[in-house]
């Protein structure tokens, strides 16, 4: 009987230690993914803010070249609040990103439709910056979304999912 109790106690201890190690690994991954997502979100916000600034420069160049963009679009760009671009899981942030994309498409198409004399190459540099920012944005977006998948996996992992439910951690959504 003592042998059975000793084996049972040792088994319980081993299972407890394994569970504790799994919890530690899981919590470490959740914290890591959360931190990495925060960094990517900040990067995405900076990229979109730079894109807005470059679009403003493009509008100034188009206007100085005699091209008259739609006043409503220019006003929308001038009044665009970059704080709305912060990466969050709400509809306002999503609509802000869509609005900036729409303005981006409009002004770039306006540039491409008109024959602009750009002897210094200044306007082409602005346009190239916008295209590069778009490329970098897509790359960071893929990394952010991959980290969201990892985060969502680890907060749903069986042994610790109940801890995260108690802590009210929720799944993040892809952008």
- Tell me about the largest β-sheet: none
**Could you tell me the radius of gyration in angstroms?**
25 Å
Average pLDDT confidence is 90
Fraction of residues in β-strands: under 5%
- Total count of helical runs of at least 4 residues: 5
Give me the strand/helix succession: HHHHH
Shape: rod-shaped
- State the separation between the terminal residues, measured CA to CA: 60 Å
Query: What's the count of strands?
Result: 0
**pLDDT below 50 for ≥5 consecutive residues: which ranges?**
none
Give the % helix.
over 70%
Whole-number tally of structural domains: 1
Structural class: mainly alpha
Features:
mainly alpha; 175 residues; 5 helices; 0% strand; rod-shaped
List the helices and strands and how they pair.
Layout: H1 2-64, H2 71-78, H3 91-113, H4 122-155, H5 161-166
What does this structure look like?
It is a single chain. By secondary structure, the protein is mostly helical. It has one domain (2-166). 77% of the residues lie in helices and 0% in strands. The chain is built from 5 helices and no strands. It has helices at 2-64, 71-78, 91-113, 122-155, 161-166. Helix 1 packs parallel to helix 3 (91-113) and helix 1 (2-64) packs antiparallel against helix 4.
